Structures are given as structure tokens and as C-alpha cells.
Recover the amino acids of this structure.
């Protein structure tokens, strides 16, 4: 008989934390309805899992992946689904009708394709306006054209205007984009959707009819100067592993590939079963925070594919098998991301297939 024991790394997923964070978003939203943004596999948390957790409280879900959206419909999801990048080819539009998906039309070509098809059902549509992000969206004169085209088709049930904010979490703020939006709307009283997490929290004037929080639902702060804790958000994903080796190294000894860390004194180090193939960022330098059985310490040397090393100076009681938290409960993902020169979004999305996800509550 053979038996296997799983490698100790796992991601704990808290449905309760996700629902709690959605309630925080609800509080900020006032009366606005909430698109829960679940693109990129719910920011790495698992689409089905996230949608299940929010099924009773969500007004709608927003993503970009057509197959995933259709799978949600097939699984019986009833709420509206917003397709944030619209369709990539006109041939996809019949699937939109089949799945009753709400397309975000962001170019005249998309609007034309939508109007050219006699869809079997009427779909709500979003028109995306470029107010300064300069990625996707219609310009003012294109909006006029688009509305004229949509008014001639029976396929559009409702039209909502949408824009995306470039720096709601930063120094440029939102006023300049709000001004452009007001000018583009030219008094038209169509429903509006503007706010991402940062705008939802900081700029009540962006709430309008529908808000689109993503990152805050997963318990990470959209701001560099305010922690998730301060915002009342709880981590949904906790990445955990264990020490799989412990050793004492002499002063002058080096650790890991590239010999990037040199011990200045005799040092006790631990080896953790977690590396960049699990989604831990390889560019996290020595000193990135990590918890060993709840005690805060730091990484040492270069992160390798399956392992990283941690400093056990002052933690002599911990040996092989001691639990390690890479981020999540007790150690904010935002802190780890900052130390690694990135943002939580990237860490979440990078969580690897091979890491099993355990539903905690
Ligand atoms: C991803 C996304 C959001 C969510 O942004 P967060 O910063 O995660 O809140 C909102 N709107 C659009 C169009 C998006 O692509």
C-alpha cells in the first residue's frame, strides 16, 4: 500500500471574510448596487468559491472571461453578469445572449457589431467612456454616435454609462475624470457606473448607480497610506506552509542561489515549502516579513522555485513542522506586496494551480 501526504503549502479561503468585506462595500455604497468583481479567477481565490460565498448578497458579478461567465450561468447563477471588456469578436455575441451577459461596449466597432446582430433577447448594455485612463472607451463624439445606433436596435434593453478611474487611490484623485464625464454626458440622464474599490471608499460622489469593487472584497487595501485593518477589511486568503528543514549556519555562511544573504553571526535558519512556483514573488528581497507560528520574522536570500528561507534568530523553539504564514491572517498581504515591490493584486493572481485551497469557514 502506498500513501502520500500533501506538501504542506495551502491557501485557506474564508467565505465569511469575503461576505464581511462585501458588507463593508455595501456600507460604503449607500444605495448603489454592487458588481462584485471576480475576474482573473476571483483575483486568484477561485471563481466558483467566491461566487458561492457571495451568492446571497451580491447584486451582480463582473469579469472578463466569457467561458467562465457561461459556466456561472450553467451552474445556475441568476444575478446579472457584466463583461468588463465586452466581446473580442462579434461571433461571441450570440453566447452573450444565451448567457444573458451584459457587455461593456468600449468601441464603435463593438457597438456596430452589437447593433448588426438580431439577438434573440434584449440585453442590457454598458457603454464605456474614456475619461483619461486612455486604454478603452468611447470619446465624446463617439458616444453620440453609439447612442444613436443603439436607439435604432431592438437588442439593447437598457444603456448604462461607465468609466474607469486611473488614480482614485493616488494623488491625481477623481475630480478631473468626473468633470470630463459630466461634459461627455451632456445632461443625458443615463445610469452610471464609475467606482472601483478606492473610489468607493474615498469618493462618495463616484457611487452613482452601480459600483465595481474588486480588491477590497478580498481584504486588501487599495491605498498605500491606509491598511486593510483600518478599513475594517478581513483577509480572505491566507497562504500557509511549514518549515521542512532547520539548520544553524556559521558567521560568513551564505544562503540560497546567488549567495545573496551572508550571515554576520551564527544564525538559525528555517526552510519553508513555498517558492515562486507556488506564487510567492521571486523578487521578494531579504527582509520580506513572514510569520513562524505567529511570530514575525523575515525571509533570507533568494526565493527559489519550491523553497524560501527564513530567519529563526530569537526563535529557537521552532523546528521542522512549525507553521508558517506567508500572507493573510496575522500578516497583511499588502505588507508583503510592498516589501516585494508589487501590489496584492499580483500576488493573489499568481497563486499557483499546485497550491490546494482549503475552505476555512
Ligand atoms: C478590475 C476592475 C475593477 C475593480 O478594481 P479594484 O481596484 O480591484 O476595486 C473595477 N472596474 C473595472 C473596469 C475593472 O477592470
Amino acid at each position: 500500500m502506498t500513501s502520500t501526504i500533501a506538501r504542506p503549502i495551502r491557501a485557506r479561503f474564508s467565505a465569511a471574510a469575503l461576505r464581511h468585506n462585501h458588507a463593508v462595500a455595501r456600507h460604503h455604497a449607500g444605495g448603489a448596487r454592487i458588481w462584485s468583481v471576480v475576474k482573473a479567477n476571483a483575483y486568484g481565490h477561485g471563481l466558483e468559491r467566491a461566487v458561492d460565498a457571495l451568492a446571497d448578497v451580491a447584486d451582480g458579478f463582473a469579469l472578463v472571461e466569457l467561458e467562465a461567465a457561461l459556466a456561472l450561468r450553467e451552474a445556475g447563477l441568476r444575478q446579472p453578469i457584466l463583461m468588463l471588456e465586452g466581446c473580442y469578436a462579434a461571433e461571441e455575441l450570440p453566447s452573450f445572449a444565451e448567457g444573458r451577459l451584459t457587455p461593456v461596449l468600449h468601441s464603435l466597432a463593438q457597438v456596430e457589431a452589437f447593433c448588426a446582430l438580431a439577438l434573440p433577447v434584449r440585453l442590457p448594455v454598458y457603454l464605456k467612456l474614456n475619461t483619461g485612463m486612455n486604454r478603452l472607451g468611447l470619446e465624446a463624439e463617439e458616444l453620440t454616435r453609439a447612442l444613436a445606433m443603439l436607439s435604432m436596435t431592438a437588442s439593447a434593453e437598457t444603456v448604462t454609462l461607465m468609466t474607469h478611474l486611473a488614480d482614485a487611490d493616488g494623488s491625481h484623485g477623481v475630480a478631473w475624470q468626473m468633470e470630463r464625464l459630466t461634459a461627455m454626458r451632456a445632461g443625458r440622464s443615463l445610469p452610471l457606473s464609475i467606482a472601483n474599490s478606492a473610489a468607493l471608499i474615498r469618493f462618495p460622489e463616484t457611487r452613482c448607480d452601480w459600483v465595481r469593487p474588486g480588491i477590497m472584497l478580498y481584504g486588501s487595501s487599495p491605498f498605500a497610506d491606509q491598511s486593510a485593518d483600518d478599513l475594517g477589511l478581513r483577509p480572505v486568503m491566507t497562504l500557509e506552509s511549514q518549515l521542512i528543514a532547520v539548520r544553524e549556519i556559521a558567521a560568513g555562511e551564505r544562503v540560497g542561489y546567488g549567495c545573496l544573504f551572508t550571515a554576520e553571526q551564527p544564525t538559525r535558519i528555517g526552510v519553508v515549502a513555498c517558492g515562486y512556483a507556488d506564487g510567492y514573488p521571486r523578487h521578494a528581497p531579504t527582509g520580506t516579513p513572514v510569520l513562524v507560528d505567529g511570530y514575525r520574522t523575515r525571509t533570507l536570500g533568494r526565493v527559489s522555485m519550491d523553497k524560501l528561507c527564513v530567519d529563526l534568530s530569537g526563535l529557537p523553539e521552532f523546528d521542522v513542522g512549525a507553521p508558517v504564514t506567508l500572507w493573510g491572517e496575522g500578516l497583511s498581504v499588502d505588507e508583503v506586496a510592498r516589501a516585494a515591490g508589487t501590489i496584492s493584486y499580483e500576488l493573489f493572481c499568481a497563486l499557483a494551480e499546485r497550491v490546494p485551497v482549503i475552505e476555512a469557514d
